[in-house]
Amino acid sequence: CVLCHREEADQHGAGHKLVQQGLSAHLGCLFFTNDLFQKAPKEEGLMGFLPADIRGTAWRAMQEDCFVCGKSGATIICSQDDCDRAFHLPCATKGGCVTQCRLPY
């Protein structure tokens, strides 16, 4: 997965891995990643997430170190006003961080 850097889905919320045109990402990682949006119908790209957007987000995330594992590429930023911690999705759920979806998801 280009967003969490894990091979397969695990019990920590990453979900099913989608693959298209040499690009792979877990469904959970796509939906939880900050500033990544479905801009196309779900039949296009990876469930409507465009490959160029996914790659751009992954590249920008290389500047963020994960609060839990310490490795770069963290794509989820805490939404608390006073918190700037960043995480990979599997690290966030494994580390006990609250992860929840809000509408429209």
UniProtKB/TrEMBL annotation:
Family matches, as SUPFAM superfamilies: FYVE/PHD zinc finger (SSF57903)
Annotated ranges, domain PHD-type: 1-105
Domain of life the protein comes from: Eukaryota
GO MF, any single term: zinc ion binding
Gene Ontology CC entries for this record: nucleus
Keywords of the record: Metal-binding, Zinc, Zinc-finger
Entry keyword annotation includes Disulfide bond: no
PANTHER family: PHD FINGER PROTEIN (PTHR12420), PHD FINGER PROTEIN 7 (PTHR12420:SF47)
Protein name in the entry: PHD finger protein 7
Source organism of the structure: Apaloderma vittatum
